[in-house]
Amino acid sequence: MNKRVYLDYSATTPVKKEVLDAMYPYFDEKFGNASSIYSYGREAKQAIDLGRQNVARLIGAQADEIYFTAGGSEADNWAIKGIAYANKEKGNHIITTKIEHHAVLHVCEYLEKNGFEVTYLDVDEDGLIDLEDLKKAITDQTILISIMFANNEIGTIQPIEEIGKIAKENKIYFHTDAVQALGNVEIDVKKLNIDLMSVSAHKIYGPKGIGALYIKKGVKIHSFIHGGAQEKRRRAGTENTSGIIGFGKACELALENMDNHIEKLIKLREKLINGIIEKIDYVRINGHREKRLPGNANIVFEFIEGESLLLSLDLVGIAGSSGSACTSGSLDPSHVLMAIGLPHEIAHGSLRLTIGDFTTEEDIDYVLEQLPKIVERLRQMSPLYENVKGGQK
Amino acid sequence: MNKRVYLDYSATTPVKKEVLDAMYPYFDEKFGNASSIYSYGREAKQAIDLGRQNVARLIGAQADEIYFTAGGSEADNWAIKGIAYANKEKGNHIITTKIEHHAVLHVCEYLEKNGFEVTYLDVDEDGLIDLEDLKKAITDQTILISIMFANNEIGTIQPIEEIGKIAKENKIYFHTDAVQALGNVEIDVKKLNIDLMSVSAHKIYGPKGIGALYIKKGVKIHSFIHGGAQEKRRRAGTENTSGIIGFGKACELALENMDNHIEKLIKLREKLINGIIEKIDYVRINGHREKRLPGNANIVFEFIEGESLLLSLDLVGIAGSSGSACTSGSLDPSHVLMAIGLPHEIAHGSLRLTIGDFTTEEDIDYVLEQLPKIVERLRQMSPLYENVKGGQK
Amino acid sequence: MYTEKVMDHFTNPRNVGEIENADGVGQVGNAKCGDIMKIYLKVENDIIEDVKFKTFGCGSAIASSSIATEMIKGKSIKDAIKVTNKAVVEALEGLPPQKIHCSVLAEQAIKSALYDYAQKHNIQLEGLEDFDPNEDHHHDEEAE
Amino acid sequence: MYTEKVMDHFTNPRNVGEIENADGVGQVGNAKCGDIMKIYLKVENDIIEDVKFKTFGCGSAIASSSIATEMIKGKSIKDAIKVTNKAVVEALEGLPPQKIHCSVLAEQAIKSALYDYAQKHNIQLEGLEDFDPNEDHHHDEEAE
Ligand SMILES: Cc1ncc(COP(=O)(O)O)c(C=O)c1O
Ligand SMILES: Cc1ncc(COP(=O)(O)O)c(C=O)c1O
Predict the structure, then answer these.
(1) Residue A47 needs a FRET pair 20 to 30 A away by CA distance; which of A72, C5, D53, D54 works?
(2) What is the interface pTM, i.e. ipTM, of the complex?
(3) Do both B97 and B156 map to the same domain?
């Protein structure tokens, strides 16, 4: 295999050179424990403060509202369990959607087994929730609304500002999983009335194993990892200094490049989607056509199954994904594609190609050259396609 | 400041060159998401498997009993909350000690507020628990014994094998926080009858932000971070590939060097302790004299306060700690020093110097040259010392 | 994730296609679960003279179908009936645990085609007495 | 963590020591809480002619004592009584939040020494009417 085209930026991104350069000194040279008072510790502390400011700036928060975690999943777990247990005297009802990431869904399911009630809102065929549904779902027991900013599979962006307004009017905490949105959409937590927000570094060219939870000042939440006094006593564990400085640098770059980044990604995405529609029959584009992440293309190729498509692409050096990365070991079709109403057999044939900062026009050309051949070959093998050609469809 | 002598290896360690070299490729070149099926993902998966084997080998576990976490604190939280909630039908009683790390103590306190009962065992003046106390504390409600392998402040090593035997005989899960013991003591989880064990990479020359929980096969435990299917569905979150490979490398080095490492550290520690006893009056050595971590020296200098001692040492380039690193922001004297029976005023004057692989004879000589001067200067300023000289003590 | 053998059969599947006026055709699995296998047989004198397949499914489903057709081509019906999913897995030099069901599907597809052949020719085949072509042999444990 | 001013007074503390036959001596804090300040005064004609201190405590406790002695040396008793903990913090160009209590201790140590002076000389000092030398002004919020 010679050419390698990576189109799975929503699964994870390479660490950018500038980010790595910022991180390196903190492994061996400036390795001190940030909680220590001596000079080794102070170096680390300063790096962490800087990282915190950079993350805060990208989302319009204050630095002391950023709490570092091990990633998006921990942030989601913390936000939801932390709010649930800290506010259970007020109520036991949580509202979320059917298309959340598993880091939200599985936490909600866990809470359901432990005395909480959860409403999972439906979405329409584009993946959007209905604001009226949300309003109707609210009861006097509702303590938390957790709705993702942008979906990791189909890219659809929710009406976050309106949701924030509804939450605020009803005095309910609003958490959003912005792991996919960060760096790809302008986010101002104050303007959007967001109380808690999960983010993760490795989706925006930062390192893996570091993320953050934004917690608005005054929000009543339990700690999730108890122990040492780090993160203002709210999240224990020796600070991952290099991770934090790297995350901060990635946020700084994202803020600087935001407009260019979005413009470039949309252009390549449209080229990809339009090329596919033009060259291949029986395809469907999933997710909202405009309200979507700039780099996300999610396409169903009828009559073929996603894994064999991915494998075939891999053999010609193209990396994509089918369903979300963390569930691709599973046999079930994606809960997101089910929720937007795709029949099972069609949901099995979905391909997610996500574009990032290192994607080129040539990469897209290469995909548009390879993909039609692969789809055709797999369809020729498929007993379902046979029926179509025979007019039985 | 010219000379810099780092004697706080128990707080954190620099990442070794070999470890860094192993990590680097996984930031940008081999950055794939380990859960993906394409070749980028497979590279990451292989690295993670290798890391897991290396960690397992150091502690005598099987690779599939190792679950990666964000560090020691998460591992402690997971072990204790996970066992508590998964076994609450069986009982609601947990046994631990008064000298655990806060990542254990604060979790226990949290559980006490949520329907669990916790016995905090006393320790003797050397920091050792009494096995008879442990046996007496067991009730038919006891579901977990959580006793640290080696103490982070005073270095005392508990009789883990005996504790494991007692736990096994009584069919109670046994968790040990081995964050400080890893790499510094031979550990064989099978021989020691350990069911769960917390470890952290940054204490053994690996990176910060990665640790692991050993969970023996068959142990009934809840997940702590819910979400994606990583870590056999038990710990969600995109795998921190570079962290895992780095942790694995650090474990590999620790295993190779164990004997030399221990011998060298003990030699330097004894030089340090004996030198201090010889040159300075009114000092006490805390912790058990033999059953202690090879690199740990914990000394009380009467009549002076720990922070001013640390600051003074820092000014001549020596980094030590007073109390444990993560609580050094606090005004209270260490709970560990209280538990071994030191009076408050004496506990305030403790200094922990911890030796590591990069410590030299010259470093110890330098400390033995500087420390007496500093202690004398601070004592001259102390109204408590005045009384001693005046014979009022 | 996959063995070289699986990848070989995935990238160069043997015996893909249809047989017109086949003596036996069997189809198992369903699109809902993500895999369908269809096997066509040409039988002469109790010998499987030709076999073709079409599969909608993952890489291991395609490889399982491909190797299964190789395993029965030229064999007697009696021997073909004896091909188990275990033999398919072994021939592929292993499958990941979550993909074992693909080999089960391949075994069932062969049986299903032979069953069809037996029905059409009104004969009884030893080893197929209990075979129910309409049973869903796929995802038995999962109970969707 | 500390300002340069704090570090300066910590490394080169002014007026360390004792005064024999001092006109006033005040001691506040206790070893249990980790800091004790003792201040000695030499007073002549209502002017603080000399002042010395001894402190057991952290860096900011030592710095607070040191700068407090500087702030009252040569001052009238009336002015010395007016030295607040806030003034001490400002003179040090700031203290970390968890160290503010050190400046409170310094203020109280001055007051305590002046109170002792007043007692010994049987006079009343304006501003010290409510002062209770035995009250523990330290860790008020913490209630150990
Ligand atoms: C005994 C002990 N347990 C737990 C921890 C917490 O580990 P981490 O900082 O990796 O979360 C530490 C160190 O800080 C420790 O010394
Ligand atoms: C929407 C969303 N939420 C949460 C996560 C989990 O983030 P992490 O892998 O950093 O734990 C991801 C990515 O995996 C995601 O896409």
Answers:
(1) A72
(2) 0.91
(3) yes
